[in-house]
Write a structure and sequence with these properties.
heterotrimer, A alpha+beta, B alpha+beta, C alpha+beta, B: alpha+beta, 6-stranded mixed barrel, 16 helices, 12 strands, about 20% strand, C: elongated
Chain lengths: ~250, ~400, ~400
């Protein structure tokens, strides 16, 4: 989730800065600019499995890279469910039970809301910049856009399972179009693809995202942005357990 | 005089006496041997469990027994460990950090018990280092080395050198993620253990958690298991606010299986002796019937029935005891010899491993069994002799003499 | 031929005492072997029965791949008709449905992962005696909207009867399952793993909570005796196509199978040792008997009976003898084993306590089944026969003139 936000805001930065061609610089710059960047978004999430499909309508507020609140607006049964992320921890507010539940370590690797994202994914992405070393390895055209292909290798101490990430960043607008996740033996585990390039709140970026697990073809989780506001006024105190219950 | 007569009688029919002797000796030998194997296997299982991770005595904070949280560490744990180490009966003490967490790879994750150790101490307390199949026991300069079980490595799809991410709750309940590298893979007799336990260096954990050097568990290995009770009592007294336990209390199911095993073996020996009893009675009966004429004569010339009774009793008794002694000697020697060399059970390896049982075992025969057997042989011999003796003395001498 | 048979038979009864003694040794051999084997096999049946009645049952039916994936998405709908059909199968004693899942259970600031099980209260109790494990509160009814927790879990959450816990997890087809539920009862299991993780709900309520109306994950089947397992399994398997999986306890609990195999191996070794002793006993007896008849044989041979014929008669005598002994042994054992099978010996003291704490009856079980008798009958018969072939050997070597002088 935060990866989306990061990527979107990152891409915005590069519309203005054109000269940073070095991978490290690209990422470093986006990192500088991403810190303390806040946003508000409305989007829909669709989970597609072999036997069933579910759709959610959601709203999110985030303060990169550590804080986010996601509020479910649809369907009626799940309306009012809130996910709060603070740094590396996740809480859920369950309206049916009127209770806040903190997700224990053993559930961090279980799926979030039934999707192909785990709770762990929600908290991990903020560390992408720091935890990896980045190099430009190629230039390719993807989906009609000329892209840099950046290879990111996790640093020794980083607590991430991946062996490497390959990211396609568009040369013109610097938004991320595709990310491939590999294990240490260079097996592709999952792919994250952005399409439907649109303009929203003055910026151009992919409005539709899909997470495709390699070992379950035909299944995927998709995000579609309906509305987004950048530099939304919000600070740390907004992201609290009490606020989880109050949010609408 | 009776004794001399009994003795002569025995050797008069060498064949028969030899048969009885051999039957008893073999029966006992076989019985003792199988008992020693059963107990040997059990002992080996116990020892491997103690060696592998139970050790002789463990100490925890009382609250830790309820909930295995890292926050339930032993107050002043390291000081206590050092104190205990000074006791001459103690071979070595290992202070461990125990955390329940998750281990994950790109493809899978699994719940694990993370055990933070000091490799030097640990080597002297448990035998985990001897179970290493690949890699070494923390001799690497690699960052954050971890030792995991083969079953877990397979489940997560990892191998030597792979990265494994450990997730757990820190003391302040915040979630911590840390990457470790597989520096060694072990395989013990228990696949369950292999799947759910992994070892890291305490120091690496402290760095990751940014915490003081705390320990959750003190594991003590004694120089001799004979000191178990005395050391236990002392520690219980010295550290009454903590939970001090012996391996018997930590794994009561082991005691249970021992009791059941002994019961089974006693029944088994009983059955064997019953078989021997019938055999002896049978044979003595025939021997006696053979000599009806003889006994008739003896009684006719004045030997009191009572003495005849005792005569037969002594014959039976002597034969049984002899057979018994030979059997026990044979058994004892076999056990003594094999307890050195051991027996290889690797054909049963898979089944045994699932139960945490070793494939190389040494027969063991507690002295207790020798005593029990001597008593049982004596009783058996006496009972065996009764029927034939009674039959004999009921004879009418005159009739007896005329029998062929 | 008839003459030989008659001769052999008469020979036996000419010296009643000797014959009876020899037969007796065979008789006792059979008796002991049967007792030992009955006890050994009894203990395996016992272990299996105790294990399957704790939770799994002898046979389980699931949707295909459920056992591997354990997801509520692999649940199934089972009609009453099919359940009745299964219940109607001979030797089936109970069929009980379950809806199983994992969810978070939370109270105050404590959240744990637990096994959530939707049950039909009465049927579940008949199979696992869950009601007997109740230490506080009341048992569930089919309409209960409350839960029964295992004692260890209640302690970890610091809850008691009347408190409400929150269950949170994923239901069927990804629908969120969440509700606040009052605790109606607390049960205690002796196995700590079970004691720290079980949460029971009424089936109706569980199906509502997990948005899985009419759906279950498992049908557990109990049978009256393990010997009927294969038969029942085949019958049940025939009722379901390959969209389902039918599994037996050995597939559900492979560790138990291994444990029994190891024990069985040990048991057979012990039985083998018993046979050796028995064989020896019989052999010795026969040897002596033959020696006694040296003179008799010597006379017979010198008056013209061919050695071969004598040997044959002797052989027939041996067969009769063995048969009498074995038959007597079996006949006596039948009521004996049956009695102990129905009225097992009770364990006492520490042994009994430990057995109880594991949820087992404190008894020494005996198994009463045809295979035991047949197996031992045949085995001892063969052993006895081998032993009694000694006389043949003896006769061959006999020197009649010397023999007559004995």
């Amino acid at each position: 989730m935060n990866k989306i936000i990061f990527l979107i805001t990152g891409s915005i930065i590069f519309i203005s800065s054109l000269l940073a061609q070095d991978a490290k610089e690209i990422i470093a710059k986006s990192d500088e600019l991403i810190k303390s960047k806040s946003s508000y978004a409305e989007f829909s999430m669709e989970i597609i499995k072999t036997d069933w499909t579910r759709s959610f309508g959601m709203k999110s507020w985030s303060l990169e890279p550590d804080y986010a609140i996601i509020y479910v607006t649809e369907p009626a049964r799940d309306k009012g469910t809130v996910t709060l992320k603070r740094k590396k921890e996740v809480w859920n507010w369950i309206p049916a039970a009127q209770k806040v539940i903190k997700i224990p370590p053993s559930m961090m690797l279980q799926s979030w809301m039934g999707s192909d994202f785990t709770n762990d994914d929600l908290v991990k992405e903020s560390s992408v910049v720091n935890d990896y070393t980045h190099t430009v390895v190629n230039e390719e055209t993807f989906n009609g856009y000329k892209c840099y292909v950046i290879e990111s290798i996790p640093k020794e101490e980083a607590g991430v399972v991946w062996g490497k990430l390959l990211t396609w960043i568009s040369k013109d607008y610097y938004f991320q179009m595709k990310v491939e996740f590999y294990d240490e033996d260079e097996f592709l585990i999952k792919t994250y693809v952005g399409t439907d390039i649109k303009e929203m709140d003055g910026r151009t970026f992919p409005a539709h995202w899909e997470m495709l697990p390699e070992d379950r073809p035909g299944e995927k989780t998709t995000f579609t942005y309906l509305k987004i506001q950048f530099n939304y006024p919000v600070n740390e105190s907004f992201f609290s357990e009490q606020n989880m219950k109050r949010i609408r | 005089m009776l004794l001399a007569l009994a003795w002569k009688n025995i050797w008069r029919n060498k064949k028969r006496s030899l048969i009885i002797l051999t039957a008893i000796a073999l029966g006992l030998w076989a019985g003792l041997f199988s008992v020693s194997i059963s107990i040997g296997v059990w002992e080996a299982t116990i020892n491997s469990t103690i060696d592998r991770n139970l050790s002789h005595i463990q100490i925890h904070k009382k609250e830790f027994k309820e909930e295995k949280l890292i926050s339930n560490y032993i107050p002043n744990g390291n000081t206590i460990a050092d104190e205990i180490r000074k006791d001459k009966r103690v071979k070595e003490v290992s202070g461990r950090v125990l955390i329940e967490g998750m281990a994950s790879s790109p493809t899978s994750s699994s719940g694990v018990n993370i055990i933070g150790i000091n490799p030097e101490n640990e080597k002297e307390v448990t035998s985990i280092s001897s179970y290493i199949q690949e890699g070494k026991f923390f001799e690497t300069k690699k960052r954050n080395p971890v030792l995991i079980g083969k079953k877990l490595a397979d489940k997560l799809g990892l191998k030597m050198g792979s990265k494994i991410v450990l997730t757990f709750q820190n003391i302040d309940t915040t979630l911590t993620f840390a990457a470790f590298r597989i520096a060694g893979i072990f395989k013990t007799e228990s696949t369950n253990f292999d799947q759910s336990h992994l070892f890291v260096k305490k120091s690496d954990l402290y760095k990751t958690m940014e915490s003081e050097p705390i320990i959750s568990e003190i594991a003590i290995r004694l120089n001799s298991s004979d000191d178990l009770d005395s050391v236990y009592s002392k520690l219980k007294l010295d550290y009454s606010s903590l939970a001090v336990e012996t391996w018997k209390q930590l794994a009561p199911e082991l005691e249970f299986t021992y009791e059941m095993l002994i019961l089974e073996l006693e029944i088994f020996l009983g059955i064997i002796l019953a078989a021997l009893l019938f055999g002896i009675t049978n044979t003595m009966l025939m021997s006696v019937m053979d000599r009806i004429r003889e006994f008739g004569v003896l009684m006719a010339v004045g030997m009191k029935r009572v003495r005849v009774f005792f005569l037969i009793l002594i014959e039976t008794f002597v034969l049984s005891i002899f057979g018994g002694i030979i059997g026990m000697l044979l058994g004892g020697i076999t056990v003594w010899y094999l307890s050195d060399k051991g027996i290889d059970l690797s054909i049963f390896a898979e089944g045994l491993n699932a139960y945490g049982m070793p494939t190389q075992m040494y027969p063991v025969l507690p002295l207790y069994f020798y005593f029990v057997l001597i008593v049982m042989i004596i009783i058996t011999a006496i009972i065996a002799a009764i029927y034939p003796s009674i039959k004999t003395i009921k004879l009418m001498p005159a009739k007896a003499i005329r029998t062929y | 031929m008839k003459t030989y048979l008659l001769l052999a038979w008469r020979n036996l009864w000419r010296n009643k005492r000797r014959t009876l003694i020899a037969a007796a040794s065979v008789f006792f051999a059979v008796l002991l072997a049967l007792v030992m084997r009955s006890m050994q096999e009894g203990s395996y049946d016992y272990m299996i029965e105790a294990s399957v009645s704790m939770y799994t049952g002898y046979i389980q039916i699931h949707r295909d791949e459920y056992w591997e994936k354990r997801s509520i998405d692999k649940s199934m709908e089972v009609s009453d008709k099919i359940v009745k059909e299964i219940e109607g199968i001979e030797n089936v004693t109970l069929v009980t449905p379950r809806l199983e899942s994992f969810s978070l259970i939370s109270y105050g600031n404590t959240t744990k992962v637990a096994s959530i099980i939707g049950i039909e209260p009465e049927q579940e109790n008949r199979m696992t005696k869950l009601k007997n494990k109740l230490i506080k509160g009341k048992y569930l009814t089919p309409d209960s909207k409350g839960t029964i927790l295992s004692e260890g879990l209640a302690r970890l959450l610091k809850v008691d009867i009347g408190d409400s816990v929150v269950l949170y997890g994923q239901g069927y087809h990804g629908v969120t399952a969440a509700d606040r539920i009052p605790i109606e009862g607390i049960v205690k299991f002796t196995l700590p793993e079970l004691n720290k993780s079980m949460v029971y709900l009424s089936m109706n309520y569980a199906q509502w909570l997990y948005s899985a109306p009419e759906r279950i994950t498992t049908l557990s089947v109990m049978i009256n005796h393990i010997d009927n397992l294969l038969e029942v399994y085949k019958n049940i398997n025939g009722l379901f196509d390959d969209k389902y999986e039918v599994m037996t306890w050995s597939e559900l609990m492979p560790e138990l199978v291994q444990g029994i195999e190891i024990d069985n191996a040990g048991g057979i070794i012990m039985l083998g040792i018993l046979y050796i002793i028995i064989g020896f006993g019989i052999f010795g007896t026969v040897m002596m008997m033959t020696a006694e008849r040296t003179k008799e044989f010597g006379i017979l041979i010198s008056i013209g009976l061919k050695k071969g014929k004598l040997a044959f008669i002797s052989f027939l005598e041996s067969i009769f003898l063995t048969f009498i002994g074995v038959a007597a042994g079996v006949i006596v054992s039948i009521p004996l084993l049956y009695y102990f099978h129905r009225n097992p010996i009770e364990l006492t003291g520490q042994m009994a306590d430990m057995a109880l704490s594991y949820g087992l009856d404190p008894i020494l079980p005996f198994r009463f089944a045809p295979n035991i008798f047949v197996d031992q009958f045949l085995t001892v018969f063969v052993i006895a026969l081998v032993s009694v072939s000694y006389p043949l050997f003896f006769i061959r070597k006999l020197k009649p003139v010397e023999a007559m002088r004995k």
